[in-house]
Write a structure and sequence with these properties.
Blueprint lengths: L24 H32 L4 H21 L6
Length: 87
């Protein structure tokens, strides 16, 4: 019993993790500069948002959660943007 279909078996490529298309390196390289630029300046600007939270006190759960979220965002921005403008 043969399966007669308009598409042959050789036209369908098996999907495996090895054959999945990855982002082209050119796209990654072109995004690297702007992402590092934004992260660098975010790491500089984010600490200014901590000041009003600290001056108002970390009394409520929401304020404490916002402070911790800003702290984590600042650490991520520092990590991603640390290589900006270095050759």
């Amino acid at each position: 019993m043969s399966n007669h279909s308009p598409l042959g078996n050789d036209t369908m490529a098996p999907s495996s993790p090895e054959t999945e298309p990855r982002l082209p390196r050119r796209l990654v390289r072109s995004l690297r500069g702007p992402v590092q630029f934004l992260s660098f300046w975010a790491a500089i600007a984010l600490p200014f948002l901590h000041v009003p939270l600290l001056l108002g006190g970390l009394d409520g759960f929401g304020v404490t959660l916002a402070f911790l979220g800003l702290l984590i965002a600042n650490l991520v921005a520092l990590y991603v943007g640390h290589g900006y403008n270095q050759e």
